[in-house]
Amino acid sequence: MTLRIRCTLSYPAFSLAVDVNLAGKGITALFGRSGSGKTTLLRFIAGLERVDGGELLINGERWQDGRFFLPTHRRSIGYVFQDARLFAHLDVAANLAYGQRRVPAGEQRIRMPQAIDLLDIAHLLPRRVQHLSGGEKQRVAIARALASSPRLLLMDEPLAALEQTRKQEIMPYLERLRDELSIPVLYVSHSADEVARLADQIVVLDNGRVQACGPLSTVLAAVEQPFRLGEDAGVVFAGRVLVRDEQWHLARIAFAGGELWIRDGGISVGRSVRLRILARDVSLARQPSNESSIMNYLPATIIAQGSEDHPALALLQLQVGETPLLARLTRHSVHRLDLQIGQTVWAQIKAVALVA
Hints:
This protein is of the alpha+beta class and 356 residues long. The chain has two domains: 2-221, 3-Layer(aba) Sandwich (Rossmann fold); 271-353, CATH 2.40.50.100. 21% of the residues lie in helices and 36% in strands. It is built from eight helices and 19 strands. The protein has helices at residues 38-46, 92-100, 112-119, 134-147, 164-180, 192-198, 216-221, 331-336; strands at 2-10, 15-23, 26-31, 55-58, 61-64, 77-80, 152-156, 184-188, 201-206, 209-215, 234-245, 250-255, 258-263, 272-278, 282-285, 296-307, 313-320, 323-330, 344-349. A hairpin with a 4-residue loop joins strand 1 (2-10) and strand 2 (15-23). It starts with a strand and ends in a 7-residue tail after the last strand.
């Protein structure tokens, strides 16, 4: 199942043109600088932006054009804003019931108990909204959106108003939502950490146009048009905790390409994790060496080389088993080691640079 979104709209000083095919489940991050069109796209899909001449099709179904406008309440969506926007005069249970009332009983794909369990809010049901923390309010807001059994969930920077501690508290619930529900989620965020941890796919917008679109790991690994998620180029991939070394406070992670030692983040053995490896933390060698402080050596094949902003630098795309990797080197090192496309090398990655 895929989600096809095609939309065009035009303001006097800004236009938006998006035509993308997305996975029918999981989280797709809408990423780009301020003013790129992320929130405008979300609001247009939700029916909160009614623009003369705008056109919107979702899986071929027309939601808006110059002659037709499908009202927001008839669009099978859930919307989570930066601020929770709960009804202050109602308790948590009544807020959730309001969301569920939108959907006839026979069309409810997500039952209230499931939404409550996913967000772990059963103990909050009798509370009034004003007695909730910021993180609790957002969990209730997400549960309320799910209670409406949407076919598409829209999330507009849902963690932006929270302090860092609260963000870390709510992230596991977003991961559960991604992993356990077959609902596509469009997730707007400026946070590289959120996107790296949560997104399955990414759509990069710039001035209303799609600059890149696809699986997060594929988009991040490209060197022809390198995309920086945050401060530096790098890749994101999934792994599983094999061992936790309590003496040295390290964990060994298995992934589709080998194994890596990283700093122990407290994740239990057997659990899935995501790793983010920045290009600046990867160096290359022709032969492995035991005379080094670097703990991680992985056999890799050079498959592409791209340019960087500075003429002294080169960006190399590597393949480690089934997993792509990026390495930033000086062009002098590329020449000195005589590195060529198709060559097998050893990728060296510092354990201290990695945190799951």
